[in-house]
Amino acid sequence: xxxxxxYDTLECAARLCDARAEVPIETEILIPDYLPQVFKIVxxxxxxxxxxxxxxxxxxTLEGYLRCVVFYQAEQDQALCTAEQxxxxxxxxxxxxxxxxxxxxxxx
Length: 108
Known about the structure:
The protein is mainly β. 0% of the residues lie in helices and 46% in strands. It is elongated, with a radius of gyration of 24 Å.
């Protein structure tokens, strides 16, 4: 009789905390010469792109860039145009103490 032993990895994910990070934006977005001149800004969006996360005791360091997209009306023909710029950021977020209960999971 042969005994076969299988070792499997059981992955488990749990949310330990909720934290918010605010990154203030104060910049000038340069419109290239080949794009139409700005008449009026319609809307601006900022999308965070996190490239690096580093946890430490009680805090989390986030590094990446903000993708800023500006929709504007052109000066001559009133057409809707867009301009985009990437702004690098680094943010340290203080994490709250974990209030839950740690659970040990074993695979049978």
